[in-house]
Structures are given as C-alpha cells and as structure tokens.
Amino acid sequence: MLSVGDKAPIFKLKDDSGEEVSLEDFKGKTVVLYFYPKDDTPGCTTEACGFRDEKKSFAGKKAVIVGVSADPVEAHVKFKKKYGLPFQLLSDPEKKAIEAYGVWKEKSMYGRKYMGIERTTFVIAGDGRIQRIFPKVSVTGHVAEVLGSL
User: Fold this and answer.
1) If you placed Cys at 35, which of 40, 95, 103, 116 could pair as Cys (CB 3.0 to 4.6 Å)?
2) How many CB atoms lie within 10 A of CB 131?
3) Where are the alpha helices (DSSP H) in the chain?
4) Stretch 101-116: mean pLDDT, rounded?
C-alpha cells in the first residue's frame, strides 16, 4: 500500500493520442493522477467533467491532471472528444500502473464480487513524492476537495 511521502511508482502508458507518457515527463510539476473504472459511465463522466470544468484553477496552482483507466486508447479518444476533456487520459490495459498504485481491488455489486479499479486520486509533488491520497472517491465534491488540498 502506498502512503503519503512515498516515491510515486513510475509508469509508461499510452495516452489518448497513442503517445507513450511517463510520470517522469511531469518532473517539477504537481500531478493530479486519478484512477477511474470506465470511460463514459455516469460516475466517471461526472468526475472527468468536474476536472475539466476546474482545469484553469488547477493550472493556476501549477498542477496537471491525468486520468488513468484500463480502457483502450480508442475508448479514451471517444470519451475525451464527447466531453471536451482538456487533459491526458492514459490507457493501462495490462494494469501495470493500476496495480503499482494499489487501486486494483475486489469490489462488490449486488452481492457479486469482482475485480476492478477503486476510484482513487493521488497528488504527486514535483519531486515525485506522493503528497495526498484520496481513496474510495465519491465523485460529488471530489474535484473541489482535491483543488483545496493544493
């Protein structure tokens, strides 16, 4: 389990344009790294649009927003275009970063257990250390809470 103060796990994933992106690409910047279950689903759309609507506020605090899910690049392209999302969405179909950050968990819905992404946001400082962790995110009010922590 990752804790505040830990070095954030480095990853290399494809973004919504098919380019490879590494956490090291953001050295010196604060990164709001949010993991979400699935493109274009109600909770994930609400969360993504919340970050979209506050992008200028995050930029004013010198923070970049990056979303990660196991969806393929093509799904990210559609999701980003449909909702005008102005930040990178990273595709992790092999769940390397998802597992490295400890967000691949057993979940339960209607009594059925399954593995999935537990909605979690990490704030990573410019030196690569984890500043804040928001586990088991409830999308209502989450973006404001993250913004307030910067």
Assistant:
1) 103
2) 18
3) 42-53, 55-60, 73-83, 96-100, 142-149
4) 88
